[in-house]
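Supplementary Note 3. Input sequence used for the single-chain structure prediction.
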Amino acid sequence: MPNPLHLRSAWARKDCRVAFSMTSLTVSSMAAGSESAQPNHVLAINSGSSSIKFALYRVANLLELVLKGKFERVGLPNGELKTTHVLTGETQSRPLSIQNLAACVPPLIELLENTVRWDAVQAIGHRVVHGGSRFTESQLVTRALLDELHRLGPFVPDHLPSGTMLIEAIHNEYSNVPQFACFDTAFHRTMPRVAKLLPIPRRFEAKGIQRYGFHGLSYSFIMQELSRLAPGSVNDRLILAHLGNGASMAAVKNGRCIDTSMSFTPTGGFLMSTRSGDLDPGLLTYLSRVEGMTGEQIHLMTNKESGLLGISETSPDMRDLLGAASTDVRAVEAVSLFCYQAKKWLGSFAAALGGLDTLVFAGGIGENAADVRTRICSGLDFLGLQLDASRNQSGAPIISPDHAKVTVRIIRTDEERYIADSVLKLLASSDRSPPPTP
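The predicted structure, written as discrete structure tokens, is reproduced below.
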């Protein structure tokens, strides 16, 4: 890969009025100057459909988290910016009404300027939810890459267009800071063809319609942690369960993903906070034909109004539903359906793997909801899957008994750290590469 800090390129899009020319710089020359402006920080940005999580790391012998925060309810009423200055422990929260993700750039820049100074930022890494079949590893953002992301926008309309505009908005303000794209779909690139194929007319495959899978940055971090905690286990038969507002599972064998529950979009798989998961296609045509629902209305229903929220009619938050279970049968049914569907996916992946050696729970629900973990694993003794009740209740790193055939772990995922790690590796790789020939 050519040294990104020597690259010269040009972005030109009339619709966003962005022009790009990356200054010819080296890491060493960027570091020259005053101590306060030394570019020794990496910014990781994890954008969703209506939120942005971010983390600022100081680059020393190890990545040191300096600042973390989140823009919440972007484009919605009651928006908010929450920040934590990790070194001091100071937390702040303030109302912030922002129209879209790109409009978060000025307050983010101001925050960083008041923390370490913006010119201390050496590079920026972004979670990019979809890379299609073309982008299968993290890489420098170029005009060609952005053009392809704009083309892929209809694949994930709630995430990709706004995330792409965010990258362009940052560049528009600070074009000399290299930005890198870390693709959520890349982890699943190793799936065999039979797992990627969708049973629809073959002509659609040529248009990029296949199973892609998501939560790849989380899964990559989990595998990285597994290699640190138990190096031999990365070659085991693994099921990774990222259970949060979005929820999915991945089956991993010999360190390679062989299947995943999400499909062409993050709406597929088992039910989530507001997403339906897999549905009978005939139901969607019925809703269109009989209920008169448009494609956009069906999209809104399956992504924003279904899942835990749709079943419970009260909340998309698993914590609320577990708390209401003693008084609200709708909450009971929502939790039960979530656990039942997750259990079915776990069983099917154990079949695809030919057995199971390690199960990992991650994500807000997977890491914190002991009752959900119990319900998912209950009745799967025939797979060798058992939980230690005390360990599970306390959220221990290993929640299976010592004698169990299957090791069950909780790993607190950190997508932002994985993004920062990826950026550092790319910078190190590019710094070893010669500048491109003029």
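The radius of gyration is 22 Å. Residues 74 and 98 are 6 Å apart (CA to CA).
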